[in-house]
Design the sequence.
């Protein structure tokens, strides 16, 4: 665990997952459509990345309704927050080491 | 070198996504210039009414009527009121148009989550200020209306700075400073009002446009 690169989580390997996590770090809750607008990707693409993050316990899903429309909101879990912070730290270390 | 570029790009991406998802960054500098011009035109139109050359908005009889009869109707039908309402609306529309154009260019929804949050947080101090000013007029304290406008608007901007581009905070400080200063020059409120809502908006808008939008067509 002393090697900073080991903290670079494979889970956050894609730009889309980084984007999802970034949005959830600074907002208590974000819904599906907001994420879609933010990242400018298709429903299916977003859904698959969300599923991966959810399966690893990085984010929580709450399914609800606004009127009759489904409204699915996402928030970051405590372990997801910890892992993401570690990932950012590892990125920073990589920059410092390679200088 | 390429070893270093990847994490750097990732961090940049993270920062950008955090900002985009929590702040409304499409506020255009041109909006400030547009609103400022509207304010200057409004102040110019209001000038003869405020200084009693026309319509006598400040005459004693009217103030006395307001104090005793609680009759606002004569005030709400005055030319000055309609000039103020027209100025406010045209400033709002011109501010909206430029920001709408910019958000379209950036591909950010103009009425998304971040824009709504910005509007709510601007509205709270403005609504409180509006009611306060309404009561000032009710009691005939016209001299405090312009300082009140500047102070509450400044507070609204400082509140807004957490939800949009940071620089708006300094515009807020300047408005508050001007508002406080004008408390010592009661009777010249319209000039301070024009300086705050007109000149400061134009200076701020021009600065923001120069800083963020001048090269936009090339960089985006």
Sequence:
């Amino acid at each position: 665990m002393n090697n900073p690169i080991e903290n670079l989580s494979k889970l956050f390997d894609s730009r889309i997952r980084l984007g999802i996590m970034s949005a959830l770090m600074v907002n208590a809750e974000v819904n599906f459509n907001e994420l879609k607008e933010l990242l400018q990707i298709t429903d299916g693409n977003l859904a698959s990345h969300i599923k991966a993050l959810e399966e690893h316990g990085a984010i929580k899903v709450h399914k609800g309704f606004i009127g009759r429309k489904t409204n699915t909101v996402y928030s970051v879990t405590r372990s997801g927050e910890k892992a993401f912070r570690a990932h950012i730290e590892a990125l920073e270390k990589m920059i410092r080491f390679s200088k | 070198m390429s070893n270093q570029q990847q994490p750097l790009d990732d961090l940049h991406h993270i920062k950008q996504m955090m900002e985009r998802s929590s702040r409304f960054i499409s506020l255009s500098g041109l909006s400030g210039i547009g609103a400022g011009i509207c304010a200057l035109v409004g102040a110019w139109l209001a000038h003869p009414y405020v200084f009693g050359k026309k319509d006598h908005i400040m005459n004693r009889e009217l103030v006395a009527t307001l104090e005793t009869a609680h009759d606002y109707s004569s005030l709400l039908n005055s030319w000055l009121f309609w000039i103020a309402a027209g100025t406010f609306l045209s400033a709002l529309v011109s501010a909206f148009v430029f920001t709408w154009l910019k958000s379209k260019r950036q591909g950010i929804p103009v009425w998304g989550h971040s824009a709504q949050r910005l509007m709510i947080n601007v509205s709270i101090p403005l609504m409180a200020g509006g009611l306060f000013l309404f009561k000032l007029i009710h009691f005939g304290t016209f001299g405090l209306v312009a300082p009140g406008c500047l102070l509450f608007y400044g507070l609204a901007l400082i509140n807004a700075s957490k939800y949009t581009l940071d620089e708006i905070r300094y515009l807020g400080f300047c408005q508050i400073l001007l508002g406080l200063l004008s408390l010592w020059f009661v009777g010249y409120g319209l000039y301070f009002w024009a300086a705050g809502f007109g000149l400061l908006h134009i200076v701020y808008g021009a600065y923001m446009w120069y800083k963020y939008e001048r090269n936009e067509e090339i960089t985006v």
User: Anything to note?
Assistant: Chain B touches chain A through 19 residues (CB under 8 Å). Chain B has one domain: 30-219. The two ends of chain B are 25 Å apart (CA to CA). Residues 161 and 167 of chain B are 7 Å apart (CA to CA).
